[in-house]
Amino acid sequence: MLDDKRLPAPVGLRKKVRIEAENFQAFENCELETRNDRNASHRLSVRQSKVGTGRIRISFDQPYAADNGICDVEVRYFDDKKGRSELKLYVNGVQQLSLIHISEP
């Protein structure tokens, strides 16, 4: 394309952008874990390093996503099989979702 001195056609905006936990940029009290599970993409997951609060963060700056508008966010996670777990979703520092799960020992 460049040999002919023609610019490539622009790529359109994507309707869906998938960001997985292992693609996040900042991990607090969390680490990547290799899983022998075909249901886990790339056979990777993120788990807490120790008891307490764990956080993963990412700046959503995707070149093929719209600059503004309303987005649907789908969150999938493996819950702890025992005890209490909580998941919160923040957008621009504002909490959008909170899920609490308590399992019987």
Describe this structure in words.
- The protein is mainly beta and 105 residues long.
- Helices cover 0% and strands 33% of the residues.
- The chain has no helices and 6 strands.
- A two-stranded antiparallel sheet has the order 1-4. It has a two-stranded antiparallel ribbon with strand order 2-3. A two-stranded antiparallel sheet has the order 5-6.
- The chain is elongated.
- The model has no long low-confidence stretch (mean pLDDT 79).
Concise structural overview:
The protein is mainly beta and 105 residues long.
Order of helices and strands: EEEEEE
How many alpha or pi helices? Answer: 0
Integer-rounded radius of gyration = 18 Å
Q: What share of the residues lie within helices? A: under 10%
Strand order of the largest sheet: 1-4
Task: Give the structural class.
Answer: mainly beta
- Give the DSSP E fraction (strand runs of 2 or more residues): 25-35%
Layout of helices and strands:
Blueprint: E1 26-28, E2 30-34, E3 44-48, E4 55-57, E5 83-91, E6 94-103
Antiparallel strand pairs: 1-4, 2-3, 5-6
Features:
two-stranded antiparallel sheet; 0% helix; mainly beta; 33% strand; single chain; 105 residues
